[in-house]
Design goal:
Helices cover about 45% and strands about 20% of the residues. By secondary structure, the chain is of the alpha+beta class. It is globular and about 60 Å long.
C-alpha cells in the first residue's frame, strides 16, 4: 500500500533543508496530481475580491483533506489555487470533492475554478518527476515541498485549453462540498515591520537539479543575511492578531459555507459574528484581570502553524521587513536575474490575511498567509511581466 507514503518521509525541520535533494522521494507512479486554479484571479483581485479568491484556493485543500481523513497527503497552497497529490484509493473521491468545490465557487462567488487530474504516469511519460519532501510546520502538521518539474508540468496541462477534455474535471454538485474546518475570521494583520514582501522565485531551466537547488539555497541564505532568522522575518506577531469585529469581513466565509440561499448564509454569518464578538468580550474581561493566558497561547499556536514559506518547483515566501531590507533583496534578485540564474516576481503588501484550516482548536491546523491585497497573485503577475520583458520579441512571436 502507498497510502502512508507521505507520512513515512523524513521530516525536515529547517526550511533551508528543502534544497537537499536527498530529502525527497519520488511520488508513487499510481498516484494522481490534482491542480486547482481560479481563472481570472488577477482581475478578481483588482476588483477587491482577494478574500474570495483565497477562500476558494483553500477550499480545495480543505475538501481533499476531509476526504483523506487520517491519511496524510501532500499539498501546496498557491493563493489562487493549489496542488494536491493523492493515492489511488482516494483519487475518485477527491475528484468528486473538488468538482463540488468548483461548482460551489461558481455559485457563491461567480469564480471559475478549474480542476485538473493528472495521473503520475502521464507526468513520468513526459520525462518529469514529482519528488516530494516533508517539512515540519508544527508537531501536528507537515507541509509538502515538491521538486522535479512534475508539478509545473501538471499546472501547464491544467491551464492548456487543448488538454481540457483529457484532464479537466467538470463541475459537480455544490451541495456535496465538504469544507469542515475552513475559516477566515481574523482581521487583516499589520506585519511587525513596514510591510511584507510577497515573493516568487523560479530558477531558470538550464540548470541541472543540483545547480537549481544551489541557487534556491543562495536565495534563502541571502534572505536570512538581510532580514535575520525566520522569527525575525516571520509575517505574524501573535500580539497583533485580532478576531474580526467587521461584519463585512466575515461575509465571504458565510457565502461559501452557509449553504444555498440568503437566509442560510445570514444564519451562518450571525453565528460566526457572535462567536467573534464573544472572543473579543472574553479578551476584554481577561485584560481587566491582568492576564490573558488562553488567548495568547492560541494566537501563538496560530502563528506557529502559518504557511508563509513553500516550494513546489517554485519558491514562494511572505517576508516581513523594512522597506530598506526589501529594496536590498530586490536589488540582489535583479542582479541574479540579469545573470540568467533566476526569474522572480514580487509585490509589497501593507498587511497580511489568513485563511485557516482548523481541525482541532489547539491541535491540528494550518493557516495560509497571503498579502491582504492579493499578494501572491500580484507577485505572479509581476513575474510574468518580467519574463515578457526579458524575452526577445522574435522569440515571443
Amino acid at each position: 500500500m502507498t497510502t502512508d507514503f507521505f507520512s513515512r518521509l523524513p521530516l525536515l525541520t529547517r526550511f533551508s533543508d528543502i534544497t537537499d535533494l536527498n530529502a525527497y522521494r519520488p511520488l508513487p507512479a499510481n498516484w494522481t496530481v490534482f491542480v486547482c486554479d481560479v481563472r481570472g484571479s488577477t482581475r478578481a483581485i483588482a476588483e477587491g475580491r482577494y478574500k474570495e479568491v483565497n477562500l476558494v484556493g483553500a477550499a480545495t485543500i480543505t475538501a481533499a483533506l476531509n476526504i483523506a481523513g487520517n491519511i496524510e497527503i501532500p499539498f501546496v497552497f498557491g493563493g489562487d489555487g493549489s496542488s494536491i497529490a493523492v493515492p489511488p484509493e482516494l483519487a475518485e473521491a477527491t475528484a468528486q470533492a473538488l468538482s463540488a468545490v468548483s461548482a460551489l465557487s461558481q455559485q457563491a462567488f461567480n469564480l471559475n475554478l478549474r480542476v485538473g487530474a493528472i495521473p503520475m504516469t502521464t507526468i513520468i511519460s513526459a520525462g518529469y518527476q514529482v519528488l516530494v519532501g516533508r517539512f515540519a510546520l508544527t508537531h501536528q502538521v507537515a507541509q509538502a515541498v515538491f521538486t522535479g518539474g512534475g508539478i509545473s508540468y501538471a499546472e501547464k496541462l491544467t491551464k492548456d485549453e487543448g488538454y481540457a477534455e483529457q484532464f479537466l474535471i467538470a463541475s459537480g454538485n455544490a451541495d456535496d462540498a465538504r469544507l469542515d474546518g475552513l475559516e477566515c475570521r481574523w482581521d487583516t494583520i499589520h506585519p511587525p515591520h513596514d510591510a511584507v514582501l510577497c515573493l516568487i522565485v523560479q530558477v531558470t531551466p538550464q540548470f541541472d537539479p543540483e545547480g537549481s537547488m544551489a541557487i534556491y539555497r543562495s536565495v534563502i541564505e541571502t534572505i536570512e543575511q538581510i532580514y535575520g532568522d525566520e522569527q525575525t522575518y516571520h509575517p505574524l506577531r501573535y500580539n497583533l492578531m485580532q478576531a474580526s469585529a467587521n461584519p463585512r469581513a466575515l461575509w465571504s466565509e458565510a457565502r461559501l459555507r452557509g449553504g444555498d440561499g440568503r437566509l442560510a448564509q445570514l444564519t451562518y454569518w450571525a453565528h460566526i459574528y457572535g462567536l467573534n464578538l464573544g472572543v473579543r468580550g472574553y479578551r476584554w474581561l481577561q485584560r481587566l484581570r491582568g492576564e490573558d493566558p488562553w488567548w495568547d497561547r492560541y494566537r501563538q499556536h496560530v502563528a506557529t502553524a502559518a504557511d508563509y514559506r513553500k516550494y513546489d518547483d517554485t519558491l514562494r515566501m511572505i517576508i516581513s521587513g523594512t522597506d530598506e531590507q526589501h529594496a536590498q533583496l530586490l536589488a540582489w534578485l535583479t542582479t541574479r536575474a540579469e545573470a540568467g540564474e533566476l526569474v522572480f516576481g514580487a509585490h509589497r503588501s501593507p498587511e497580511v490575511m489568513l485563511t485557516c484550516l482548523i481541525f482541532e482548536r489547539m491541535g491540528r491546523q494550518i493557516h495560509f498567509v497571503d498579502g491582504a491585497d492579493g499578494g501572491f497573485t500580484l507577485a505572479a503577475r509581476d513575474l510574468k511581466q518580467r519574463l515578457r520583458a526579458a524575452t526577445p520579441v522574435s522569440t515571443r512571436e
